[in-house]
């Protein structure tokens, strides 16, 4: 029979799992602007379309839903900062 001490997870695992659940989506959203802007800028400089593959990673943020509008503004700000254009 297992005791309570044996079945309990260590506290650091619980703390890090909560931190990962909070930080992972935040890092995903905040990295979208600079990564997409860099990819589009590199495409503009090299004329190689392979840099557009980055779009697939951030596709959920690029969909046209009302909730994604703030992400469009954020990504657009980074595109203006880099002086690059999205495809199309």
What does this structure look like?
There is one protein chain. The protein is mainly α and about 90 residues long. About 70% of the residues lie in helices and about 0% in strands. The chain contains 5 helices and no strands. Helix 2 (about 10-45) packs across helix 5. The mean pLDDT is about 90.
Describe, in short, the structure shown.
It contains five helices and no strands. Helices cover 70% and strands 0% of the residues.
Please tally the β strands and state the result.
Answer: 0
First CA to last CA: what distance?
64 Å
**SSE series:** HHHHH
Taking all residues together, what is the mean pLDDT? Answer: 88
Strand content: under 5%
Q: What portion of residues is helical?
A: over 70%
Category from helices, strands and their pairing: mainly alpha
Query: What integer value in Å does the Rg equal?
Result: 19 Å
Characterize the largest beta sheet: strand count, sense, and whether it forms a barrel.
Answer: none
SS summary, helix count: 5
| pLDDT < 50 stretches | none
Based on CA inertia axes, which overall geometry fits? elongated
What key attributes describe this structure?
70% helix, 88 residues, mainly alpha
Itemize the secondary structure elements and their pairings.
Blueprint: H1 4-7, H2 11-46, H3 54-57, H4 59-62, H5 69-82
